[in-house]
Design goal:
three-stranded antiparallel beta sheet; 446 residues; DNA-binding; FH_FOXN3; mainly alpha
DNA sequence: AGGTCCTTAAACATAG
DNA sequence: ACTATGTTTAAGGACC
């Protein structure tokens, strides 16, 4: 494809001067161990690992959401559709964007968010009760929580879409028929990569709760006493579903919804606690089931990350980590983690190509002239992919069989995983507390 | 210096 | 026809 002519001027120093996201909170900073590989090649995570993961996630989600629940933020949020619908506070037009740091969400809500788009999208999706959002609602969430974007050039929406499309962490799920009003699909977090996103958030230097993250509360009480994150009852999707995911076995998801709305967040009723081991087993079982299904069921999404080498994200590794990553010899890095780079392409293929198009013909792609090594690589791979299919991309996508209950179940499993994590964490906290009390008693006795 | 990550812009296709 | 959504390519800056 001929390079699109672009006004050189429009791009000059763009990233450095306009981008609110320049390399802050980069997913590339993710430690290698933070990359879960839910494939056959990696051993089943030990309960302790899971525990740690869950703990992190719990704090993380809570903290990150908490940071956006700031009333100051709310009060300056633009008047959104959601607010209008629900009598949300009418908002004054936000002050003009100020030049950045110190990053202070609380006192300068209009400052540039230090989060990457990946993180923003992640937070938006995670903040929704059903853990999936249409693009429009992602926009809304971002606008709602980061007034900066109300005055930002509209390009950010493009970036959001670009991220959704390109980033492995995000998965498109078709709306079921009852919900298929309006365009587009719902976007959710690819379970395997949620961890990465959490880590990325954690790495954000300006994270308002960095201290909290550094010193997580040691007790359930302390944990629960933390300030309250915003729920998002105004989400149209949430409203549609009455706050509960529909189309899935009621007990499972309704319990899940209960956990989300009452357990992680304030005023939450505790759930029955189950041993971590059994939970892990259950989670693994669910995971395995999903994986099995997605591998064996040709109507389902192609398996994601079934090959460790393909199990990469838009942003799961920087130079260092990628070298750690490369266990498979010299070629491993060449399938880099950059957007559009080889592995990302693999991921694109994973996500977008139907199984019948899974055999792109390498020869079909003529080698590109070497301008940029990386771009050349990417372009070549992209051509491989495209050439392997006879259908236009969109057609290939839409040729997918209609979303089945299987897909719903997969999603439910994803929610379950998340919730299981929450539960395990609480379980752990409670156990620790109980254990500590018992030990204290014993000590006193002696 | 080169590689990588991320953002931004733009072109294009498709769906509603 | 128009707009929103989704995909892809390209380029530049920051960072390591």
């Amino acid at each position: 494809m001929p390079p699109s002519k672009k006004p050189e001027v429009s791009r000059v120093s763009m990233a450095s001067e306009q981008s609110p996201f320049a390399q802050v909170g980069s997913l590339s900073e993710l430690p290698q161990e933070a990359m879960p590989k839910a494939d056959a090649a990696s051993p089943t995570p030990r309960p302790e690992d899971e525990e740690l993961t869950n703990l992190n996630w719990l704090h993380e989600s809570r903290n990150l959401l908490t940071s956006f629940g700031d009333p100051v933020l709310r009060s300056v949020s633009p008047v959104l559709e959601l607010d209008r619908d629900h009598g949300g506070p009418p908002s004054p037009s936000p002050p003009p964007a100020t030049s950045d740091p110190p990053y202070d969400l609380k006192h300068n809500p209009n400052c540039k968010p230090p989060y990457s788009f990946s993180c923003l999208i992640f937070m938006a999706i995670e903040d929704s009760p059903s853990k999936r959002l249409p693009v429009k609602d992602i926009y809304n969430w971002i606008l709602h929580h980061f007034p900066y974007f109300t005055n930002a050039p509209t390009g950010w929406k493009n970036s959001v879409r670009h991220n959704l499309s390109l980033n492995k962490c995000f998965k498109k799920v078709d709306k079921d028929r009852s919900q298929s009003v309006g365009k587009g699909s719902l976007w959710c977090i690819e379970g395997e990569y949620r961890h990465n996103l959490i880590q990325a958030l954690k790495k954000t230097p300006f994270h308002p709760h960095a201290q909290v993250l550094a010193t997580p509360p040691v007790s359930l009480q302390a944990f629960q006493s933390m300030s309250s994150p915003p729920l998002w009852p105004v989400s149209p999707f949430f409203r549609r579903n009455g706050g509960v995911l529909l189309q899935v076995p009621q007990g499972v998801i309704q319990n899940g919804a209960r956990i989300l709305s009452q357990e992680v967040f304030p005023g939450i009723r505790p759930l029955p606690i189950i041993p971590i081991g059994s939970r892990s087993a259950a989670v693994r079982s669910v995971l395995a089931g999903c994986r099995r299904r997605s591998e064996s069921d040709p109507s389902g999404d192609p398996p994601l990350g079934s090959d460790p080498k393909e199990d990469h994200t838009y942003s799961t590794g920087n130079g260092q980590s990628s070298s750690l990553h490369s266990s498979g010899g010299g070629a491993s890095r060449e399938a880099g983690d950059v957007p559009g780079d080889g592995e990302d392409d693999d991921r694109c293929r994973d996500r977008r190509e139907p199984r019948d198009a899974a055999a792109p013909t390498p020869d079909a792609a003529p080698p590109q002239a070497q301008q940029h090594k990386r771009r050349q690589h990417w372009t070549t791979k992209a051509k491989l992919r495209v050439s392997g299919d006879s259908l236009p991309l969109k057609k290939r996508r839409t040729q997918k069989p209609p979303e089945s209950d299987d897909e719903e179940m997969k999603e439910a499993a994803g929610s379950l995983l998340h919730l299981a994590g929450v539960r395990a964490c609480l379980n752990n906290i409670t156990n620790r507390t109980a254990k500590g009390q018992k030990e204290q008693k014993d000590t006193l006795k002696n």
